[in-house]
# Entry
Amino acid sequence: MAVPTSIRPPVLPNEQKPMGPPVVHAPGLPTMEEVGTVRTVLRNTALPLMCADAAAEVRGDNLMEKAGGMSEVPPSHSLGPQRPKDGPNAPAPSDSYLRLEVHFENGRLSVVGAKEVAGPLTIPTAVIQGHVYEVLLGEQQIAIGSIPDVGIRRAFANRDVPDPEGKHRFVEIPAFDFFVRVPKAHVTAENLQKIDIVLHNVREAPDRLAPALAIHHQPGVEAVEVARLSGIKLESVPTVVRSQLERITNENKIAP
# Structure
C-alpha cells in the first residue's frame, strides 16, 4: 500500500523581481491599483465625513501643490533672546518687587539679603496652616505669604528601624531663613522705619482673607506671633542690603 505524501503549499517568493510577475500572498484580497490611477481614499471613522473637495485634496496629484503653499522660510533663531510681548497686558517697566531674605534665630528676625525682581507682585488671598510672613505698613497689610515647610526638618519612615525611631516625624530647627516679598512702590525712605515684618504660626484660617487687613484683625484666623522686626534700619543691615535699599528709595524719590 502506497504511503500518501503530505501536501504542502507552494513556497512563494518574498522579493519582487524586476519585470517579473507580481507576488501574491493573499489572493482573496483586491488587487492594487495601477500607478497613477489611485483613487481610493481611506477614511478614519473616528473623524467626521469629508466632502468631495476635501477628499480630492489628499490624492497624490495634489500633494506637491499643497506642499508648495507652505512657508518656505523656517523660523529664524538669529533675532536675539526672547522678549516680553507688547500690548496692554504687558508688564510696565517699573513693575517690580523687593525680595528680602530674613533670618530667624532666638526669636528674632533680621534682614540678611535683598534683591529686586522684575514683574508685579501678586498678593495671595489666602494662607495655609504653618508659618506665614506678613509685611505691615502701620496697620495696613502690604504683603503676605505662606512658608509652611520652613523651620522643619522631616525624618521619613524607615521600616528597618524599630519603634518610634523609624517612624515619620518632624523636627523643629532653631534657626532658618525665608524670603519676604514687598512691592517696590512701598519701599521709600519714609516707609522703611514704619515697615514691620511679622512671622506667624497659623493654626486656622478661612478660605479667603480680607484684603489689606492685618492677620490679628482677620476674622476666623487663629495664629500665634512667633517674631517681629519693627522697622528696617539701614544702619543695622549688611552693606549689600543697604546699597539695594538706598538705590530703590532714591528711585522712588525721583519717580513721577
Observations:
- Helices lie at 52-57, 63-68, 189-192, 239-254.
- The chain has a mean pLDDT of 77.
- The longest strand covers residues 108-118.
